[in-house]
Amino acid sequence: MARFVTGNTFSTGNQVTASSLNDAVNNAKISTDSIDSTSFQIDTGSSGAKIQLKDSTGTSDGVTFAKLQQAAANTVLVRDANSTGAVSAKAVTDTQILIGDGTGFTAAALSGDVTMTNAGVTSIKDDVALGGVPTAATASESTNTTQIATTAYVKSQLNVGGLGYATLTLSSQTFSASGATVDHDITDSFTISNNGITVSQSSADIAVPSGIYLITYNIKDITFNNPTGGSSVTGRMKIERDGTTVSTGSFEAGEGSTVLANSLSGVFTGGVNFNFIVGRKRGSNTGLTQEMTPNNIEIAIVRLA
Fold first, then answer.
1. Mean pLDDT per segment of 10 residues, for the chain of length 305 residues?
2. How many CA atoms lie within 13 A of 231 on its CB side?
3. CB 223, CB 258: distance < 8 Å
C-alpha cells in the first residue's frame, strides 16, 4: 500500500510517549512510492524529502502536453514581450502568420501586392507598379515567350547580326568649281564593328555586307563661304547605293553662315557599296571657289535582318 509519509516505526509492546510521537513527526519523510513517478520525483536529501518536477527524457514523462493548461482554439504559446516572463496564447487566424518585431509578436496576413493561401501559396496581384531598380533573369537569345525582357536582353537583340554607330568630324575643305555642281565624298576613315558585322571606310566607297539595314546620314552643322562672289549657296547631301542616288536633301546658306542639322535615312539592302556625299549646287554660276566646312557628320548603320 502506498504511503504518503514515513517516520519512526513502532513495534508491539513499544511505549508511546510524547517524545516518541514528536520524533515520529519530526523524522517523517515523503515515501518514494506515494506519487506517480512519470511526472514527479522525490528528492531524498539530508534536509528531508522534497517533491519536484521530473526532467523529461521522452514524450511520455516529465510534464507532458496533456498536463499543460488547455489553450484556446487556433493559438500558439509564445512569450509575447521583449523581456523574460510567462508565456501566453497568441491567436493566429485564417491565412495569418506570426511576425516578430522585437517587442513581441504580431499575427497578420500578407496584404497589398502579395497574398498567401492557407497552403502557403503566394500570388502577386495584377498591374503591380515596381519601384526602384528591379532586376530579373536575362532570357537566352531569341526567346519568344511571356518572360520579362530585361534591358540586357533588349540590347542583345538589337545587336543580333550587328549594330554600329560612327561619328565623323571633318575639317575645313576648299572646292573649286568650273561648273554648277561640286560634290565631295565623305572619305574620313572609320570602322563600325559589332557582333560579326564590320563596316569600314578608307575611301569613298563603304562596303556593307549582305542584309537589311537602317542607314542614317546626319550633318549637324555646316558652314559655307563665297570668297569669289555670290551671296548665297544651295548645299546638298545624298546617299548613293552602288552609284545610284537613293536619298537626297538640300539646304540654303548665305555668305559666311552656318546651317544647322540636316538628315537623310532609309532602309536598304546590303551586299553593295554606299557613298555619303556632301556638296553644293550653285545653279548656272561657274568659276566660283566655294569654301565649305562640314562639322559633326554622323553615319549610323544598323542591321535589321
1. 58 77 71 66 64 77 79 91 91 91 90 88 88 88 84 70 55 52 71 66 76 81 63 76 88 64 83 82 55 72 75
2. 0
3. yes
Domain residue spans of the chain? 5-65, 75-124, 163-303
| Amino acid letter, 77 | L
The C-alpha cell of 148 is what? 520579362
Element (H, E) at 150: none
Which residue type occupies 235?
Answer: G
User: C-alpha dihedral over 67, 70, 76, 80, to 10 degrees?
Assistant: -90
Domain 163-303 has CATH 2.60.120.760: yes
Helix (H, G, I), strand (E, B) or coil at 153: helix
Cell of 218: 546626319
Closest CA relative to residue 223, chosen from 138, 273, 271, 292: 292
Cα–Cα dist 14/92, whole Å? 67
- Of 127, 126, 146, the closest CA to residue 136 belongs to 146
* Integer angstrom CA distances of residue 107 from 77, 85, 89, 91, 111: 13, 20, 12, 7, 13
DSSP state of 259: E
Choose among 66, 68, 67, 87: nearest CA to 76: 87
